[in-house]
Amino acid sequence: MLNSGVLQNAEFLDMSVPFSAGGLVSTVGDLLTWNTALHDGGLLNRDSYERMTGRYAETEKEDGFYGYGLSISTMSRHTCLSHGGGVNGFIAVLQYFPELGASLVVLANLFNPPGIQKVVQGLSMILLNEETVNL
Description:
Strand order of the largest sheet: 3-4-5-6-7-8
Radius of gyration: 16 Å
Helix content: 25-40%
Number of strands: 8
Mean pLDDT: 87
Shape: globular
Number of domains: 1
Oligomer: single chain
Order of helices and strands: EEHHEEEEEEH
Low-confidence stretches: none
């Protein structure tokens, strides 16, 4: 974390506490492989995938929907299927834009959700060929 402009180690966290929410080691390449397999039909049959990415009244939230394990929203007129998370010292965001067949993977070892969200937003706008935001 940054404390008065000085980088400091994250507070210790016994990884048995977040369990599977923090017990995964991956790379951008690994997550791109996962996203490609998930969205190109390599993991789920068509019916299961459509259910997973469907918009249902009971899953509606303020800024979109939360399907079966994915947030479903719209960015610049494009569907965005995503999931993110983090624990002390780590944060990850994985997005997929089905109309473009494009994935965005952002990993950081600095847990700063507002900061990482600005990076994700800026990269998303570049990917969607929209105006970029100041990072």
